[in-house]
Amino acid sequence: MIFVYILCCVIPFYIWWKIRDGFRIHNIDDKYILITGCDTGFGNHAARTFDRKGLRVLATCYTEEGAAKLNAETSDRLKTIQLDVTVPENVKRVSEWVDEIVGSSGLWGLVNNAGIMGTLAPMDWLTLEDIRQPIEVNLIGLIHVTLALLPLIKKAKGRIVNISSVGGRVAASGGGYFSSKYGVEGFNDSLRRDMKAFGVKVSCIAPGLFRTPLSDPQTVINQRIQIWHKLQQDIKDQYGENYIAVGKYFK
Fold first, then answer.
1. How far apart are CA 201 and CA 14, in angstroms?
2. Per-residue model confidence (pLDDT) at position 211
3. Is 236 left (phi over 0), alpha (psi -120 to 50) or beta?
4. What values do phi and psi take at 59, rounded to 5?
5. Of 177, 182, 239, 249, catalytic
6. 177 in catalytic set
7. 67-115 pLDDT tens trace
8. Three-state secondary structure along 89-158?
9. pTM over 0.85
10. Which of 28, 112, 150, 214 lies 20 to 30 Å from 221 when distance is taken between CA atoms?
């Protein structure tokens, strides 16, 4: 009787263990994953983490300093290249570089992390260029990188992870940042549907507010102060002289 009882306990555990083991990624030492925006923040942390796990990381950095620092602190499995996602020639060069490295195996993973906050301020304080800048990086740049690398990802039946934001669900301020992240959510849903037939998995991560260089509250306040000094007097009168001080609750 005791044996039957033990057996009844062991069998469900064994089944659970086999299912859990099925979710593991095997042969990770020959899988390549490209991560954009690896100078600091989430991208830097992801590159280091995947490198420690044994994956072959292709990390793009915006600056030479960021690339050099990441190279110095990771294994020789990790390779870096500079990338400005808003420059088409840069994106083409990186896609050719990736193609040379991964060869016939294709690109197993793409993490679209590169992004900027841009200027967060009331819309009628901003120029079209202020609004355009984060959209060009966070949305158009993300789409361009994805389309450039998609043939390699389809070849590997890989996966794409797009880093959105809680700001892609709720707009907490004016500026192009929130519009860009709403766009990322829409692009992600369209791409996931299109790629399902090819065995490519598409996911979206929407982090909340984390303490990274991207979301430094003092930077937000300083940007608003700079814009405030350039505003026409009638706009200042509409908002009131204490508007910036009240806005410091972002800290």
1. 28
2. 63
3. alpha
4. -105, 125
5. 177
6. yes
7. 999 999 999 999 999 999 999 999 999 999 999 999 999 999 999 999 9
8. HHHHHHHHHHHHHHHHHCCCEEEECCCCCCCCCCHHHCCHHHHHHHHHHHHHHHHHHHHHHHHHHHHHCC
9. no
10. 112
**CA 93, 98, 103: angle at the middle one, nearest 5?**
130
Tokens matching residue 160: 């794409």
- For 247, which DSSP code? G
Side-chain half-sphere CA neighbours of 246 within 13 A: 6
C-alpha 175 chain-centroid distance: 19
Q: Which amino acid is at 228?
A: W
In the block, which residue shows the tokens 């002289």? Answer: 241
For tokens 């030479």, name the residue. 64
Do 36 and 61 contact (CB within 8 A), yes or no? no
Tell me: the pLDDT tens digits for 118-143? Answer: 988 899 999 999 999 999 999 999 99
- Reference 149, options 208, 124, 141, 219; nearest CA is 141
